[in-house]
């Protein structure tokens, strides 16, 4: 099936549904709306108009950016959707962010290979999450 790609933010409902399908944590609709609105860049993949892949860059636009929300509908896993989403996000970052910008992400161990192939390396760190 042919996918269409764009940089438009999905609706809050689409975003929350894809996160659910992809097994990502729940977000409140108001928080999701604010997060989508404040993204540096968004990449979406659609099949027949339905959101099947997503990724976002968030950050300050100068020194720091973080890859978040890499999500693929389970029906489309194994077809390179996440790889293409990540590639498009990083291509945008290379073109639009200063060369000295640090791009980070937090990944589940099952996704390490995807991010290693894109040039990321594992480092130790800490995270604080809200309830």
Automatic annotation (TrEMBL):
User: Which CDD domains does the record match to this protein?
Assistant: NAT_SF (cd04301)
**GO MF annotations for this entry?**
N-acetyltransferase activity
Task: Show where the N-acetyltransferase domain sits.
Answer: 2-131
Q: Which GO terms describe its cellular component?
A: cytoplasm
Which PROSITE patterns does its entry note? GNAT
Supply the alphabetized keyword list.
Acyltransferase, Transferase
Q: Which Pfam families match?
A: Acetyltransf_1 (PF00583)
Q: What is this protein called?
A: Acetyltransferase (GNAT) family protein
